[in-house]
Amino acid sequence: MKIAFIVNKFPVLSETFILNQITGLINRGHEVHIYGSPPDDASKFHPDVETYNLLKHTYYALSVPKNHFWRLLKGLGFIIANFNQAPLVILRSLNFFRYGRNAASLRLLYSIIPFLKVRSYDIIHCQFGIQGNQGLIYRELGAIQGKLITCFRGYDISWYVQEYGEQVYDELFIKGDFFLTNCEFFKKRIIKLGCDQNKVVVHGSGIDCSRFQFKVRKLKSDGKIRIATTGRLVEKKGIEYAIRAVAKVLKNHENVEYNIIGDGELKAHFQQVIRELGVAEHIKLLGWKNQQEIIEILDRAHIFIAPSVTAKNGNQDAPVNTLKEAMAMGLPVIGTFHGGIPELVQDGISGFLVPERDADAIAEKLSYFIEHPEIWEQMGKAGRAYVEAHYDIHKLNDELVEIYRQVLANNLYSCRVQQPQPTITTECV
User: Fold this and answer.
1) Which fold has domain 2-202?
2) Are 175 and 169 in contact (CB under 8 A)?
3) Of the candidates 220, 265, 255, the residue with the CA atom closest to the CA atom of residue 367
4) Which candidate among 114, 175, 412, 418 keeps its CA 20 to 30 Å from the CA of 386?
């Protein structure tokens, strides 16, 4: 199959779930092209980007000049250079009656140019609902052809809907061929918004468990308890509550070290909170790390915290991959009753779940872990087993290929994807 991935930015270090799908499809003999914008920071990226030479198959959106005269001049150049190749596509992209300011400003013209080299695909896989809306327009213009599949993953079905209204995906739900969500929580939400329940299945974000070696967690001779969190330093990740929880725990357990991997808009705020709490010797903001660096940090850790919260703008999380990675490595975890996280963490079995924004509850569970290291092994094994059964990338990529085939055959109205444990099969009814 020939498959187009429409993404926001690529490659992005925090979006290994997209990279895992791309490489998995390539390994299965399929041709994948990637359409998006360059990343904000190209200095750090997953080694698979280079191993698979993915940038050679990535087509970046053209930047739109802010100067209107220069924008018009360049736009005329694009029209002249590409008109013979796709006259109708170019003319449609200028239809401001249909596409409003997006066409009048020439932004739509600029955005379709990268698609004109190939245009025809079996599958157009849009990562996030926002890209689904874009893909729908590109297909309507004729800039790209193929079955349109959109995957909803988090902010696109939480913050974006709150910001732009519950009708924002109405046309996509009608004209899109099929839809995926990465958890039941978001599946129920898009059905409530108007998506046909026969056109959507849950398809989880997978990880390559073989890259995350399981290890029984035990106290070392130095007596240090190492805690870790991986995530962007934004409100949704709830990291401030974990910082405050660790500060509370330090009053009774001075042998605690908390490492936070990630970067983001709240970095300066977190640094200030850490200073005010007087815990700078124990809580470190490590910044962004590549996957191997993250693995090395987690390998030394004993406990993992994923304190996600519903942001003020409505943004919510699915079962986050960083949590899956920690569980695959045998770390007992603390998560929150938030979004899709309860679908991943079995409370009292592989870790603990606490209410959102509750530093006291996180501190209580941390203290329990610290005082009962004998439960680490059992919880770590339970977490590894659950991730292997439900989120193994190889099984999920096999499932994805089968979904593609069913979409191409127009069979998904009468088929459902089932995920029995531990294997994944597709059953027609």
Assistant:
1) Rossmann fold (3.40.50)
2) no
3) 255
4) 412
